């Protein structure tokens, strides 16, 4: 798999894990679901951290900064799919800018 596709796939998997883990913790603490929701959330959030280590890029700061662009898009999608919330044009414009920033950080030419 070409590196850009692999990097995006790893970001996607990390984002799904972060969102699902956070959602489980939210369910436990804010919706008063049973403690196993929180425990499962903690396990999924641990997995999210491990997924980031699968990136080929070796600079942690760059990975985290670039990942944020993908996370913004995934969080908007999560809200729309899981909660029925609809992002407005400003949300979508911001997400587009964030993705452009992610692409520059991860795939821009380096000398």
Automatic annotation (TrEMBL):
<feature type="transmembrane region" description="Helical">
    <location>
        <begin position="66"/>
        <end position="86"/>
    </location>
</feature>
<dbReference type="Pfam" id="PF02694">
    <property type="entry name" value="UPF0060"/>
</dbReference>
<keyword id="KW-1003">Cell membrane</keyword>
<protein>
    <submittedName>
        <fullName>YnfA family protein</fullName>
    </submittedName>
</protein>
<keyword id="KW-0472">Membrane</keyword>
<keyword id="KW-1133">Transmembrane helix</keyword>
<feature type="transmembrane region" description="Helical">
    <location>
        <begin position="92"/>
        <end position="108"/>
    </location>
</feature>
<keyword id="KW-0812">Transmembrane</keyword>
<dbReference type="InterPro" id="IPR037185">
    <property type="entry name" value="EmrE-like"/>
</dbReference>
<dbReference type="InterPro" id="IPR003844">
    <property type="entry name" value="UPF0060"/>
</dbReference>
<feature type="transmembrane region" description="Helical">
    <location>
        <begin position="35"/>
        <end position="54"/>
    </location>
</feature>
<feature type="transmembrane region" description="Helical">
    <location>
        <begin position="7"/>
        <end position="29"/>
    </location>
</feature>
């Amino acid at each position: 798999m070409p590196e850009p596709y692999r990097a995006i796939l790893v970001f996607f998997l990390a984002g799904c894990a972060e969102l699902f883990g956070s959602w489980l913790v939210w369910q436990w603490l804010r919706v008063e679901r049973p403690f196993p929701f929180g425990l499962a959330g903690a396990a999924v959030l641990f997995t999210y951290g491990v997924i980031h280590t699968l990136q080929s890029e070796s600079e942690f700061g760059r990975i985290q900064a670039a990942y944020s662009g993908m996370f913004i898009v995934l969080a908007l999608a999560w809200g729309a799919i899981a909660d029925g919330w609809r992002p407005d044009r400003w949300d979508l414009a911001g997400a587009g800018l964030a993705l452009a920033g992610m692409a520059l950080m991860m795939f821009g030419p380096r000398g």
